[in-house]
Amino acid sequence: MKSRKIGGIILTILLFIAAIITIVPFVWMFISSFAPNSEIVKVTGGLFPKPSTIDNYVSIQEKFNFLRLFANSLIVAVLKTGIAIYTSAVLGYVFSKMRFRGRNLLFGIVMSTMMIPWAVTIIPQYEMFTNWGLQDTYTSLVLPGMISAFGIFLFRQSISGISDELIEAAKLDGASETRIFHSIILPMSHNTIAALAIFTFLWNWEDYLWPFLMITDEKKQLLAVGLKAFNGQYGTDYGGLFAATSLAIVPVIIVYMIFQKQFIAGIATGSGK
Question: Is 230:236 a contact under the CB 8 Å cutoff?
């Protein structure tokens, strides 16, 4: 018992240190967003800027179309997240509860795609979408993220825990596979949905390289790419960059706060399986 208590204390201390190391850069960035550039680049500057100013936030829209790019990113991220969740749930249900020849082999192939680095496929994927005439369209951003191998795995593990007898009882009552999926499987998978929603939204919200390659129209560009507007030829507007970045992480925080409990429960379910 004493060794367990000591181990718990050590683990708590390590987690606290890790949390501090993770949070401090974000806190410093947020505080620095209220400082002029002359204060930010000072080597001997303190944590709290003197004087503080909100000019960095006021001038964001003047330096680049922040609101338009913010809305573009939000629409694309929400759309890709919603589609990925639904397709992952459907395929997870298929691989978990339906019996057909080659099921395990097909699932293994899906899982093997997680081992392929994305950088390996980016050139052929870019040429394919360009040949299809999809450059400068939101379709080129949404289409690659419609299927998530990680999401399929997460839902398969979660749905495997749902009783087969419950599904059979629904079939005896005349429910179709579509009705079973929407009325039984999805409501019982809310923890997994929340976990995948957070992961997928975060990945899509901070995506930079693919939108940078596919979108050349500034009005259609996403926020992560638009932040490079603060990097000038002769210097970087750190104050404006920190202010825009601070606003950019707000949706991620909101999504996590909404789904926090379900997220932890969903990860615990997936790891337990």
Answer: yes
